[in-house]
Sequence to fold (401 residues):
Amino acid sequence: MSKKKLVIMNLAVMIGLGSSFAIPSANAETAERTEIQENIKDATQDVEKVQQELAELKKQSERVEAAINDNTKKIEETESKIETAQTEISTMESEIAKLEKAIKERTDILKQRAISYQHSGGNVEYIDVLLGSSSFSDFVNRAVAVGKIVEADRAMIQQQEADEQELNEKKVSKVEALSDLEGMKSELEGMQEQILTQKKENDTLIGQLKDEETAKLAAVNSLKQKEANLAAQEAAAAAIAQGSSNSSSSVKLAKGTTSKTTTVESTPVNPNGTVNDLIRAGYKYIGNSVYVFGGGRNSYDVANGRFDCSGFVHWAFSTIGVSVGASTDSLKYAGKQVSTSNMQPGDLVFFNTYKTDGHVGIYVGGGKFIGSQSSTGVAIADMSSGYWAQKFNGRVVRVSM
Fold:
């Protein structure tokens, strides 16, 4: 609602009340406005400080998130290397089996050759074998045979030793590589756990700061609304002091234009009213009201659609002859607590905004409630999704009617 409309409505009510309306001291209101403006300044600085902390924490959270992604990638790469190493070890074990088989076969061949030496002079000195030949051709044959056998045996023995060394080196190399990879994976997983813990703590702090920001913004808005109300009262008092007509249906504004007052027709009390009457009572204020902290507790506020959440609930129930409290704390105990599964139109629903049970409205069915919201004034809002779904705390109170 604009400042101009507030001036007009204040003037209209004061004119209608006539001499029974006591005009507050202008000096007192000015002093109070000055104090409120200082409070707004301080509260705004608090909001900015929280927002700065929130921005810094979000940047830190982004860095932590990047670290988690990088670390996850390294873990995945290490797991892939471990899998490759295990495959290589499995392949190596197959090769080892082949080498062991070849060594066994080679050993069997050497045994057979040793037996052959018994028949061809293998157990005697090389010169004895040659001198023991029966003829020159036998000498030549013996010399060639013994030379080849010794050379072949020596090569086979050297190959066996080389294969055994290769086998041992492969075992050591693969086992060490696998051990290193598993150690690296273990270390990375430990780091990841620490980073995830830090992320959880950051997320908790961000949530707390957001709640604090919401609460402080609500406080700033409340102070601004209060300051605007005082400004309107000052303007109204000044206009009356300057001789504004108290019988005209319109008020002369600063630039010579006129505007009719926009009050809402009063709602007669119906002591036999139903839940539907309770809910419909507030419909005329939809799009024609403003949220005012502490509003809805006097005829002027009601006539001009000025409500806070609990003031609206208090007024709505009064239209059907039911008396309930005018604060969220008192409304919590205005009736019987019921479960959300049993929620019915007319029940009170509570939300954790700037504090626990900081907001209240009247359930109208279909996942919606009617109430005076700071951003809209009296309106029907959806509590099944979005902001109000997140803030709904599950408290439902049924008032006896």
Remarks:
- Confidence is low (pLDDT under 50) at residues 1-25, 121-126, 243-261.
- The first helix runs from residue 3 to 17.
- The two ends are 34 Å apart (CA to CA).
- Residues 9 and 262 are 7 Å apart (CA to CA).
